[in-house]
């Protein structure tokens, strides 16, 4: 095997933006972590007779989509599962609860059309079609009122991708129209569950990628809990710990957390230490090794143990960042015509990935305090571009600070390990010990 093919084969195994979504991928590469939210959700759903609404919080790239795909597969025999991916269906920069409600309506309609359900779906679907049109066709220049349901779903999907909230809310109070959509969708859910003798479970993925203000406004709307079926929403970790979200969060049955495997231990007072967490690092090492083993003897021993230890440590336990570091080492391996990944190669990969993080002057005092105490603060900062905000909300959302749990399921926080040298330089310059 040529050097190019050798490294390309390994490189293609590490795709940070691709979760484990297929049964084959999960079977081959998934590594079980402690206190998986999937197991908790299965237990909770088994005990719920009435429609329940759950939140799943975790860092971007922490593995929420993979865990939700596991949930989907485990419950496929017991529930009619509807998967909704807001990341690909909605505009990241123009989204609100209106788009989410309309998208759920469209996806339910698509599920009915693609299924073999026998109830009178023509009447129900026509009512949903007219209701959805009342919102979607407020877009300027829309000339598709005569389209049937399949064509309408495709056209509406394009409109949603652009975002409709701004246009709609300028012209009317959209809430009554959204409530009408929810009422009709609830009629469809009731008919489907009665016919299939199977409850419906909606999984809404991708909402964790939005900024704090957008997410808070979205999840403060009662409309997101008015559907009469089980629903699970992924949310940003910054929203999970924001004081502003305490009251809205109480309208959901439970907020579950996807824990990062810790790479360091905390002490009895939940303060970060420099002591390695061997169990957490073992999980991360297994994530890498499972992929390398799939390549057979040709790639056996690809990572030197010290190189593997470094990228696991610097990932902070965030799965996507671990995979990105591994992918970068393969890129460097090809570029430098290497035969394996040494500690020097891993250090170069860490330096490259570190460039993706941006620190501002106002971040450092909070990072220093969190690193010493393990606790978030509520200190605010103001910028002309975004007004006043809680600094720790920004630190969490941008993965400058990472959250963990100890063995007693108590939360603690620390600076992202890939940034520790930056903090140490700031401490030295500011005479901090």
Gyration radius from CA atoms, angstroms:
24 Å
Mind describing the biggest β-sheet?
A: 5 strands, parallel
Amount of beta strand: 5-15%
- How far apart the termini lie comes to 52 Å
- How many structural domains can be distinguished in the coordinates? 3
How much helical structure, as a percent, in the residues? 40-55%
Main structural class: alpha/beta
How many helices in DSSP terms? 20
Protein name: KAP NTPase domain-containing protein
Domain KAP NTPase: 44-219
Organism: Nostoc commune NIES-4072
Pfam families: KAP_NTPase (PF07693)
Describe the structure.
- The chain is an alpha/beta fold and 433 residues long.
- It has 3 domains: 3-15 and 280-353, Orthogonal Bundle (Helicase, Ruva Protein, domain 3), CATH 1.10.8.60; 36-257, Rossmann fold (3-Layer(aba) Sandwich); 363-429, no CATH class.
- It has 20 helices and 11 strands.
- It has a 5-stranded parallel sheet with strand order 2-3-4-1-5, with helices on both faces.
- β8 and β9 form a beta hairpin.
- α6 (97-114) packs antiparallel against α8 (149-162).
- The longest helix has 22 residues, at 175-196.
- The chain is globular, with a radius of gyration of 24 Å.
- The model has no long low-confidence stretch (mean pLDDT 87).
């Amino acid at each position: 095997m040529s050097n190019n093919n050798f490294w390309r084969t390994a490189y293609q195994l590490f795709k940070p933006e691709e979760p484990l979504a297929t049964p084959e991928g999960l079977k081959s590469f998934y590594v079980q972590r402690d206190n998986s939210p999937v197991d908790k959700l299965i237990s909770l759903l088994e005990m719920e007779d009435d429609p329940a609404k759950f939140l799943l919080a975790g860092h971007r790239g922490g593995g929420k989509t993979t865990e939700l795909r596991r949930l989907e597969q485990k419950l496929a025999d017991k529930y009619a599962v509807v998967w909704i991916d807001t990341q690909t269906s909605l505009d990241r920069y123009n989204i609100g609860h209106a788009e989410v409600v309309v998208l759920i309506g469209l996806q339910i309609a698509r599920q009915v059309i693609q299924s073999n359900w026998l109830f009178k779906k023509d009447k129900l679907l026509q009512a949903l079609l007219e209701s959805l049109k009342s919102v979607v066709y407020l877009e300027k220049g829309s000339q598709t009122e005569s389209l049937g349901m399949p064509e309408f779903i495709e056209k509406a999907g394009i409109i949603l991708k652009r975002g409709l909230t701004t246009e709609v809310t300028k012209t009317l109070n959209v809430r009554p129209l959204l409530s009408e959509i929810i009422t009709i969708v609830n009629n469809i859910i009731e008919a489907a569950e009665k016919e299939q003798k199977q409850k419906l479970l909606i999984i809404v993925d991708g909402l964790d990628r939005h900024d704090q203000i957008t997410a808070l406004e979205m999840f403060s709307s009662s409309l997101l809990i008015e559907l009469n079926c089980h629903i699970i929403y992924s949310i940003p970790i910054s929203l999970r710990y924001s004081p502003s979200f305490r009251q809205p969060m109480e309208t959901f049955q439970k907020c579950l957390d996807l824990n990062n495997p810790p790479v360091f231990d905390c002490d009895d007072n939940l303060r970060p230490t420099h002591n390695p967490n061997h169990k957490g690092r073992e999980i991360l090492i297994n994530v890498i090794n499972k992929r390398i083993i799939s390549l057979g003897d040709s790639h056996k021993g690809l990572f030197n143990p010290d190189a593997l230890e470094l990228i696991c440590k610097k990932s902070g336990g965030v799965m996507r960042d671990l995979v990105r570091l591994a992918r970068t080492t393969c890129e460097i391996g090809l570029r430098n015509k290497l035969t394996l990944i040494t500690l020097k190669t891993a250090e170069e990969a860490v330096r490259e990935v570190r460039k993706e993080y941006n620190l501002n002057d106002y971040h450092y005092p909070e990072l220093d305090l969190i690193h010493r105490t393990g606790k978030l603060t509520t200190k605010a900062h103001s910028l002309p571009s975004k007004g006043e905000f809680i600094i720790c909300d920004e630190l969490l959302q941008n993965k400058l600070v990472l959250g963990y749990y100890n063995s007693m399921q108590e939360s603690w926080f620390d600076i992202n390990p890939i940034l520790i040298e930056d903090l140490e330089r700031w401490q030295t310059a500011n005479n901090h010990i």
